[in-house]
Specification:
The chain has 163 residues and is α/β, with parallel strands linked by helices. The protein has one domain (25-161): Rossmann fold (3-Layer(aba) Sandwich). The chain is built from seven helices and five strands, in the order αβααβαβααββα. The protein has a five-stranded parallel beta sheet with strand order 3-2-1-4-5, sandwiched between helices. Strand 2, helix 4 and strand 3 form a beta-alpha-beta unit. The radius of gyration is 20 Å and the shape is globular. The protein starts with 7 loop residues before the first helix and ends with a helix.
Length: 163
């Protein structure tokens, strides 16, 4: 009996079905320090933070911004660039990133987290509310033990590139 030939596209489809899927990426919640690194061009962190924001702007990854981070960004940027500069920066960020609003239950959840910095606990609550796969920060120490995985901007870039 002759051996049956399997059509090529069936073989290729079959192989593809057995490949492990890449890790789930996004949406990504960007911590305030990452936003400030990009906006204020703070060396040596600015390059990776700017690249990450650019990927969000081009739709290659979904970026999230906690509503409470907007006030901090405005305040810190305003010290350097003044009120009009701070407004321009916030206006640009909200075009690149999706704002995650927080409510009563989110704040209550943040209060239960075993974190020293309440602002970071609010970031975790925002990431949880939005279904973020990761929080992007260069301050991983304050997020240790939290329920959302943490990546540095460089690690996030590598993960997105490896999709």
């Amino acid at each position: 009996m002759a051996k049956e030939r399997v059509p090529r596209r069936v073989r290729e489809t079959s192989r593809a079905a057995h490949r492990p899927s890449p890790p789930r990426v996004g949406p990504l919640l960007l911590d305030t320090n990452v936003l400030l690194d990009a906006v204020l061009v703070r060396a040596p962190w600015a390059a990776s933070a700017v690249r990450l924001l650019a990927l969000c702007g081009h739709g290659q990854v979904s970026g999230l911004l906690s509503v409470h981070a907007i006030a901090t960004v405005y305040y810190v940027v305003g010290k350097s660039l003044g009120g009009p500069g701070a407004r321009a920066v916030v206006a640009e960020l909200i075009e690149l990133l999706t704002i995650v609003e927080l409510g009563h239950d989110d704040v209550r959840y943040a209060l239960t987290l075993p974190m020293r910095d309440f602002e970071d606990a609010l970031h975790v609550a925002a990431a949880r509310r939005a279904g973020a796969s990761h929080i992007i920060t260069r301050n991983d120490r304050d997020f240790r033990g939290g329920p959302i995985p943490i990546l540095s901007p460089g690690e996030a870039l590598a993960l997105v590139a490896g999709r």
